[in-house]
Amino acid sequence: MSQAAALRRWRPDLVYVSSVEALPQVRMLRLGKVPVVLHVHELGTALEWFDRGHPGMLKAVPDRIAAGSGAVARDLVRLIGVPAERVSVVPPHVPEPVPAGLRARAAAGAAAGTGTAAGPRDAGRPFVVGGAGKPSWTKGPDLWLLAARDLVDRLGPDAVRFVWVGYRDNRDGLEFRAMIAKLGLGESVELVPETDRPLEHFARFDVLAATSWEESASLVVLEAMSLGVPVVCFAQSGGPPELVGDAGIVVPSMSPAGLADRIVELRASMKMREELAAAGMRRVGEAYSRDRSVAALVELLDDCVASRSGSSD
Prior knowledge:
48% of the residues lie in helices and 14% in strands. By secondary structure, the protein is α/β, with parallel strands linked by helices. The strands form 2 sheets. Strands 7-6-5-8-9-10 form a 6-stranded parallel β-sheet, with helices on both faces. A 4-stranded parallel β-sheet has the order 1-2-3-4, with helices on both faces. Helix 11 links the parallel strand 9 and strand 10.
């Protein structure tokens, strides 16, 4: 049987589309009244750009949309005009349980040097500020480096170190290296290439600086919180402040200096770091577990099939 013939005979009860980029293929399938659920992980400019290339498709094709965060849901309604009743938030989750050994290592590292407002941490162990992801515009590597420059100027190069996990040796990577050099941070920034074992590097962080301009829902933020690593992010970045809630620090404006202020406070207070570490682990377990995420998605899929079946009677 040819592929075309197989597709003509294929009559599923529902089609689940896992990304916006795959949505144009749904129309090619000519499935008639089969309900479609689209999982959206993009927001802001990414949604607007897709809508320019495929006008009206986000409103016309999916029967229901699973939004990766409340920020995604709001942008679908506000920017694209999708009816709010067709959008449901399906929370993200940490893909794999965090090994207890890594969590213990992170806790031990955080306790290695206490630090006070009057003096630096343990002289043999600088305070480690982490960042992660492909260093493209959305991740805000420029904001991260500007905060790094500010922190080095305030604390001195021996007191603080910066580790970015997920470096790629492409154009974005070369631009990232150029910014590091121009800011005089070559001795302070460590670049870790893309790896399938990122948590081992996250366990070295004393704080994760999530400096994204736009991010729908950050697994890096959830993974850091699950390790007991405090997170600092910007209020306007989309998903990260939603994930962090009151279990981290949300800077009200997109200000590298403001972010640096809060990191200085964290460095000076072991008590604050311990409280945020405990709150972060608790929040991930309660609000962003795999079971909770899967249950929300299954409920949406079942509801979509039931709604379409009921409307055809």
